[in-house]
């Protein structure tokens, strides 16, 4: 189920083929397994220490590494490649202020980046469809969707179904909102120690609530399912 970080360069080079990519953590893991059309995702990465650790303990024959769409992982590689190859990027997520601030910070780092942006709030499905049709005319090479699970996944699925032009699509969770606050959101020591969750929990109440409520539920269910199903847990 989970892909390897070494596949990212190859994914980026094949912009003539539509590919959509998402990143799962303990909060989104089971929701994704129940997501309609989840099979349309071409690559799935494990984003989070706990999910990665559990996989490597119980399914050691297929070890994986943590991969996320932020500057502690692959975001810098994607933006650098897009700038160097003059690719068109569209970012969708955050509120109007956050996405504008994030766009400006991306341009500070990558001055020649061809970037377009929109906030991640839509009134209804028709508005989403109309925006996707506008995107199709723009013909972007890369679409980055940061609207939270499952909205960001459903948005990329809709893009893949509706758009006639090819693109590479990434979900990015809270990356756009985080970048609006600080370009390199995570402290270097936090990144080195793999404690991104701890910094988020310290800064954001909703993350603390997830750690206290959702993570124990996930852990119990995962341990039960891995014991009963083994590798079939991902089906």
From TrEMBL:
The keyword Nucleotidyltransferase does not apply. Keywords: Glycosyltransferase, Transferase. Coiled coil: none annotated. Pfam families: Glyco_tran_WecG. The keyword Transferase applies. InterPro entries: WecG_TagA_CpsF. One of its GO terms (molecular function) is hexosyltransferase activity. PANTHER family: PTHR34136, UDP-N-ACETYL-D-MANNOSAMINURONIC ACID TRANSFERASE (PTHR34136:SF1). This is Glycosyltransferase.
